[in-house]
Amino acid sequence: MAPVSRLEINFCRLLERCEVLADERNPTDWRFKKYVQSLEDMLLDLRNINTCQPSKDTLVHYTSKVDFLKRLIAVDTQPHNSPEKALAHEQLALKPVPDDKAKEILLKRQTKAIRDVREELLESRSSVKTNASDSKGLRQRVPGQGGGEDFDAVLRYHNSMQEKIAEEMVSLAQNLKQNAVLAGHIVKKDTEAVQKSVQSAEQNYERLQNEQRRLEEHLRRSCNCWIWLMLAIVFFVFLNMVVFMRVFPKR
């Protein structure tokens, strides 16, 4: 594993904090914008450091995450419940996201934006109905009908957006399930490999014990053979000396 610099550790911590602030969906929090600006400066320093520099793929991943946070800031700067903000949300959904965390943040923001627009449309429709019931002139009835048609069109659009978000959430859940199943298979294979290694180690240990016992027995037998051989030689030499003394007595 490559060494990680202190700058990269601080960058990852600040990036995680920015993701938490983005998930809270509070556009009035001034810290979010300041933190993202600090992330840009730290990312530039990471590209220029000489020691413990991250890999190119890691830098590309960091850059995509910072760009995603900058796009969120651009959406938050739009007026609340304005067509420009709805268009910015739609454009943000069309662009790729760096990872699953960013996708989750994007889905939550889109859901909240659709809910806000729906609440505003429901309030406007209720006010239009109230005005239409109080008015008796044809001039006041016609705008009421046009407002209802506009509301139905916008409602159909947002229903389609909700269906798209639901499909993306289902796709995300399927991906998570597939990753969990794949991780389970990997863990199962690793467990089987560890069990086989343990069994092989036990078998090797038993073989080693058997070989050690055989070696000890062999050494003991060879030692006994040498002892008996030395005793035989000593006895033979002693017998020869006795015979020599008998054959050649001292004068």
UniProtKB/TrEMBL annotation:
GO CC annotations on file: endoplasmic reticulum membrane; SNARE complex
TM regions (residue ranges): 226-248
Compositionally biased residues, Polar residues: 124-134
GO biological process: protein transport; retrograde vesicle-mediated transport, Golgi to endoplasmic reticulum
Chief location bin: endoplasmic reticulum
Coiled coil: 191-221
InterPro entries, sorted: Vesicle_transport_protein_Use1 (IPR019150)
Any one Gene Ontology molecular-function term assigned to this protein's record: SNAP receptor activity
Pfam families named among the record's database cross-references: Use1 (PF09753)
Membrane topology, as annotated: Single-pass type IV membrane protein
CDD domains according to UniProt: SNARE_USE1
Region (Disordered): 124-147
Keyword field: Coiled coil, Endoplasmic reticulum, ER-Golgi transport, Membrane, Protein transport, Transmembrane, Transmembrane helix, Transport
Protein localization: Endoplasmic reticulum membrane
Family: Belongs to the USE1 family.
Alphabetized PANTHER family for the sequence: USE1-LIKE PROTEIN, VESICLE TRANSPORT PROTEIN USE1
Protein name according to UniProt: Vesicle transport protein USE1
Upper taxonomic lineage: Eukaryota, Metazoa, Ecdysozoa, Arthropoda, Chelicerata
